[in-house]
Amino acid sequence: MKLTIYFVLLTLSLPSFANEDIYDSRKIPADLKKDAHAVFRLDEGVFEIQAVDKATYRVKQIITILNKKADHFAEVVVGYDKLIKVKSLNAVAFDEKGNQINKWKKNDFEDYSNISGSSLYEDNRVLYADLKQKDYPYTIEIEYELQFKYLYTIPDWYVIPGFHVAVEKSVYTISYTEDTSPRYNLKNTTIEPVKTVEKDITYLHWEFTNVNAEKPEIFSKGILAITPAIILSPTKFSFEGYAGDMSSWDGFARWQHSLNKGLNDLSAETRNEIKSLTDGLASEKEKVKAVYQYVQNRSRYVSVQLGIGGFQPFSASTVHNTGYGDCKGLTFYTQSLLEAIGINSYYSWIYAGEENQGLNPDFPTNKFNHVILFVPLENDTVWLECTSQKLPAGFLGSFTSDRYALVMTGEKADLIRTPTFRDGTNKVELKATLTLDMSGNADIEVSSHHLGLGTEYYSIDRYANENHNNQDKWVRRFIPLSDLQIKEFEFSEIKGDLPEVAFNSKVFARNVAKKVGDKYLLNPSLLNYETRRFKKEPDRKTNIDFPYDYIMEYELDIILPKGYKINNQLEDAEFKNQFGVFSTQYITTDDGINCKRIFKPNTGEYPADQIEDLWAFFDNIKQMENQRLMISKEE
């Protein structure tokens, strides 16, 4: 009966025009093609919950690819593992008029392991097929059915799958029995589902039609911030025999507590070692730092994505004896070591990465992909990123800072926001001495100092320990001169309460001063630009996400060849608005000129109607950076 109902729903969800028209790209309404690289003629999902540990997910997509920029939609990837079975999979390609070109069955798809480079245990695999055609437009149809042996997650539904994508029809249906009732939260839409009940099975049915394509906007949080979406979560679930209740944040804590129970099995020898390591230290914070350093020195990160192992950490003794673990294992291990010396700390889930969309505190759902450790002390709070072998205790990079973490204290949980680290301590200081010769070439000494989140500038934190060839490539990106000869360079990391990296180099560059007639023109900003080049947007839709996390201080001493002088006077200037301050200063010296720039951004989120102020901010920076020194021989 359930399968029959599915096909009835699928038939009803098809567009009202004749079935063959759905494959004919000439039938797409003109307004849907505006700003679109692809049009989803039909995007349909049906998720059928059969039990707390069993579900079926059916997907049907008919996508017209208008140009090469949307070819990625024709690369079909369907993932599976021991808990997800691909029951059926097929695809068809059509030409512009809707004539069938090619057809693929499940056996035609290539089967690949999906193990990442840092993974130790992982059973993920993917079925892959490239459906791209050489002539545009073309249409592809994809259908597949997945069978889940768990109900830990329910696929969310995003109506617009990306920028420059229009949607003719998007349909999502959930079916469930009374004891498997899911929950949903609407995002960027007020469309409630149509609810029907048939023979003790409830159906929730959403439908969206004729959704125009969206264009990306500079300094935006991305498509997920504006697309209509249905966020779904189970209430009761089971994963490989571990039952849970996701209706509250405490339910998450109880479930994770059941997974972690009994795993703190450190030996008496290890406990005594940690006590001896920390006994002489004066404060709890110093003890936390010592334990964290101990973990960093003797362990390394590996990924584990294997059934319940994707959620359950290795035991503390396993991590200790092997010297490796994933975020779960290393965090639980560190927690166990701190417990051995009487310091409470708490296992915490978080969504890590740049595409963090935030959590709705009132809607418990699994939107986490990482684990860190929360250590509340009497006069301080320390967060530990246990997968890092370099970060100081208490510092979180942009990977996990400024967002909610689900801190689990036994069988209770609280959403606590991680620190922002935007208190003026994040800096990039760049100093250089440029000695110009009479041909416009220059010897240049460049040094930079990076503090806090400033160590993520140009990813210098990663390159400080890279091999020489990769560091050489980094230097050529960091010093943006086209004709560059690198004489020497050095990276050094400085231990402290904040991450800190220093860089020093000596280079030779040709034609840094451009000859015009009998004079030379030199841009004092040649080693560092803050100008952003972008097309202005007249009708801004999304809020402005101003991402700069550091203060930039730039100082350049220009030493002229003997017998040369500067013919013009560059004016000191400052521009300030809600987005920050940008200032320049020029001081004549005995042998040339000293140039200083300071960029102090005000990081944050701003209303869309302030976009003109943002353009003004960067227009003024551009004007200041475009100034040129005019250099000539003395008469």
UniProtKB/TrEMBL annotation:
- Record-linked Gene3D superfamilies: 2.60.120.1130, 2.60.40.3140, 3.10.620.30
Mind telling me which InterPro entries this protein's record contains? DUF3857 (IPR024618), Papain-like_cys_pep_sf (IPR038765), Transglutaminase-like (IPR002931)
Q: Does the keyword Glycoprotein apply?
A: no
Keywords assigned by UniProt, alphabetized: Signal
All copies of the DUF3857 domain together span 54-213
Give the Pfam families listed for this entry: DUF3857, Transglut_core
Cite the Transglutaminase-like domain residue spans from the record. Answer: 276-377
Write down the SUPFAM superfamilies for this protein, in alphabetical order: Cysteine proteinases
Residues annotated as signal peptide: 1-18
Q: What is this protein called?
A: DUF3857 domain-containing transglutaminase family protein
